[in-house]
Amino acid sequence: MQTHTAAPRRLIVAITGATGAIYGIRLLETLRRLGGVESHLLISSAGWLNIQHELRLSKEDVHPLADVVHSVRDVGASVASGSFATDGMVVAPCSMKTLASVAHGFSDNLITRAADVTLKERRRLVLLVRETPFNLAHLRNMTAVTEMGGVIFPPLPAFYNQPASIDEMVDHTVARVLDLFALGPALAPAWAGLRGAQE
Ligand SMILES: Cc1cc2nc3c(=O)[nH]c(=O)nc-3n(C[C@H](O)[C@H](O)[C@H](O)COP(=O)(O)O)c2cc1C
């Protein structure tokens, strides 16, 4: 008799060159803390620039946060194929360049190929797009990704939870992203209504 074992939970995490590298890093740290999910990390060249500039972190600091690290040039990697089962992909932060590439199915590196595969396999793709203000190309590209089933998730801080620090703002966003994958217990308490918040 053939036995079937459940596929491991896997999440692809990409960091691109928009400001806000902390979101991708905190996502990896949180996945590590939760356990039970194999993380596959992809970082663009501009993503590395921002990790070094904004967080003063090196590859030696960042690589151990993930289970598997792929080069963005390695378009033959496991995550380039739909036959490699994953729960989906998060691009945090997502630059307008990467957004444009995903919106047009351009697949010019492993990040945009993996995003393309995630969409074609009807898996969850979440883009933490970051730019301000937006031009019409940005808005049209966000619409195109939404029409294909992707989730546009700009990392806009919430204030209703009365964050006491930037860390708390980042954690709240990361928790809401992980909610979209039903990963782990709810990390950010659900809104209980204004009356609930006052109690
Ligand atoms: C310090 C810094 C901050 C940047 N911030 C943004 C940003 O918030 N949004 C964006 O779309 N691009 C931003 N860029 C530009 C992108 O890094 C650039 O378009 C790059 O080509 C994106 O490539 P990638 O998508 O392959 O990472 C920034 C660049 C630098 C150096």
Automatic annotation (TrEMBL):
<comment type="similarity">
    <text>Belongs to the UbiX/PAD1 family.</text>
</comment>
<keyword id="KW-0285">Flavoprotein</keyword>
<dbReference type="InterPro" id="IPR036551">
    <property type="entry name" value="Flavin_trans-like"/>
</dbReference>
<feature type="binding site">
    <location>
        <begin position="95"/>
        <end position="98"/>
    </location>
    <ligand>
        <name>FMN</name>
    </ligand>
</feature>
<dbReference type="InterPro" id="IPR003382">
    <property type="entry name" value="Flavoprotein"/>
</dbReference>
<feature type="domain" description="Flavoprotein">
    <location>
        <begin position="10"/>
        <end position="180"/>
    </location>
</feature>
<comment type="function">
    <text>Flavin prenyltransferase that catalyzes the synthesis of the prenylated FMN cofactor (prenyl-FMN) for 4-hydroxy-3-polyprenylbenzoic acid decarboxylase UbiD. The prenyltransferase is metal-independent and links a dimethylallyl moiety from dimethylallyl monophosphate (DMAP) to the flavin N5 and C6 atoms of FMN.</text>
</comment>
<keyword id="KW-0808">Transferase</keyword>
<dbReference type="InterPro" id="IPR004507">
    <property type="entry name" value="UbiX-like"/>
</dbReference>
<keyword id="KW-0637">Prenyltransferase</keyword>
<dbReference type="GO" id="GO:0016831">
    <property type="term" value="F:carboxy-lyase activity"/>
</dbReference>
<keyword id="KW-0456">Lyase</keyword>
<dbReference type="Pfam" id="PF02441">
    <property type="entry name" value="Flavoprotein"/>
</dbReference>
<feature type="binding site">
    <location>
        <begin position="17"/>
        <end position="19"/>
    </location>
    <ligand>
        <name>FMN</name>
    </ligand>
</feature>
<protein>
    <recommendedName>
        <fullName>Flavin prenyltransferase UbiX</fullName>
        <ecNumber>2.5.1.129</ecNumber>
    </recommendedName>
</protein>
<keyword id="KW-0288">FMN</keyword>
<dbReference type="GO" id="GO:0106141">
    <property type="term" value="F:flavin prenyltransferase activity"/>
</dbReference>
<feature type="binding site">
    <location>
        <position position="176"/>
    </location>
    <ligand>
        <name>dimethylallyl phosphate</name>
    </ligand>
</feature>
<feature type="binding site">
    <location>
        <position position="160"/>
    </location>
    <ligand>
        <name>dimethylallyl phosphate</name>
    </ligand>
</feature>
<feature type="binding site">
    <location>
        <position position="130"/>
    </location>
    <ligand>
        <name>FMN</name>
    </ligand>
</feature>
<feature type="binding site">
    <location>
        <position position="44"/>
    </location>
    <ligand>
        <name>FMN</name>
    </ligand>
</feature>
